[in-house]
């Protein structure tokens, strides 16, 4: 299982509550909240995480300017996924 944490100290200040409030599509294995309120995305493997990021990128491009908070959340999630060391290694192998 691959767990990717999105710190609540990011630009969007993402928390588990805001993840739900803005109806961000969850990854296939769901999300978890850490004690410090960071959101943790759950995946089977790197491939599943990359596929989720690709679909979330599409969601982000469809948002309009009135949805700035959701855009920031999507950007923080994408950044956490693409900057994850396991994802970087996986993408280099492709």
Write the layout of secondary structure elements.
Layout: E1 2-6, H1 16-21, E2 31-33, E3 39-43, H2 46-61, H3 68-82, H4 85-93
Antiparallel strand pairs: 1-3, 2-3
Helix pairs in contact: 2-3
Overview of this structure, please?
- This protein is α+β, with helices and mostly antiparallel strands and 94 residues long.
- The protein has one domain.
- The chain has 4 helices and 3 strands, in the order βαββααα.
- It has a 3-stranded antiparallel beta sheet with strand order 1-3-2.
- A hairpin with a 5-residue loop joins strand 2 and strand 3.
Distance between termini?
20 Å
The whole-angstrom Rg is 13 Å
**Largest sheet, if any?**
3 strands, antiparallel
Percent range of helical residues: 40-55%
Strand coverage percent? 5-15%
The SSE order reads EHEEHHH
Mean pLDDT: 92
Strands of the biggest beta sheet: in what spatial order? 1-3-2
Summed up, the domain count is 1
What would the principal axes of the Cα set say about the shape?
globular
- Helix/sheet category: alpha+beta
Query: What are the low-pLDDT stretches, counting only 5+ consecutive residues below 50?
Result: none
> Total number of helical segments?
4
